[in-house]
Every structure is written in structure tokens, then in C-alpha cells.
Specification:
One of its GO terms (molecular function) is metal ion binding. By secondary structure, this protein is mainly β. 12% of the residues lie in helices and 34% in strands. The model has no long low-confidence stretch (mean pLDDT 92). The structure holds zinc ion.
Length: 136
Amino acid sequence: MTTQTYTGSCHCGDVKFEVDLDLAEGGGKCNCSICRKTRNWSASVKPDAFRLLSDTAATTDYFRNGVVHWPFCKTCGVRPYGYGDIPEAGGPFVSVQLACLDDVDSQALAEAPVRYANGRDNDWWHEPSDAEKAFL
Ligand SMILES: [Zn+2]
């Protein structure tokens, strides 16, 4: 595993972060209600690999399901990261939107593997159908 430090932000720049991750590990897409509607493609890291460089006051926290916080920028609405603590999935984590990384090499992003999960049915270790995967 070769981690690299990336910077990321929302669209307007009010939310900024730094994250250490290995793009070769790829990111996850899922068909649960929020991932599907936001076309989420994200990589999960341990909290100490994520540094928020802006004030949390720039975001509104969206915590509808009581499991994962999905703060979004109050100004532009972009949702650069989420965080939570799911013991069955390894404990505390931060999930970073790969599309919000600013200094990432396009080729490296194109080669990053995509892992699909059937979150809608709480069946996290299996992929949704090919038709569903096509629009995640
Ligand atoms: Zn913004």
C-alpha cells in the first residue's frame, strides 16, 4: 500500500481537506438511497488519515440514518466527505469523495478500481445487478 497525500474541496472552496490514501485501492460505489442519488464514489480511510482544513461551520450536517454523517457545504451544496463509526466494517472511518480531490492525476483516477456494493438491500458484500451498476 502506497499512500499519497491529496487535497480536496467542495466546489466553492469553503470546505477544504487533506487525505492520505492509496488510489490503487480504489473506491466504492453503492446503490443505497443516498449513494445512488449523489452518485457517490468514495474511498474510506481511518480518521487519522483525514484532516479537515476548514471550519465545520462551513457545512450543514446531514445525519438522517443515524449511522453516517454527510456534511455538505452551506454555500455550494457539494458533499466532499462523510464519516461514521460502524464496528462491523472496522470502526471509525472517513469516506472521501474521489471526485472532490483537486490535485489528482486523471490517469490514476481512471485506473482506480471500483468496488460495488448492494447497500440498498443491506447486502454489502455483493454487487448490484449490471443494469444498476451502470448508473451508479
Ligand atoms: Zn462549497
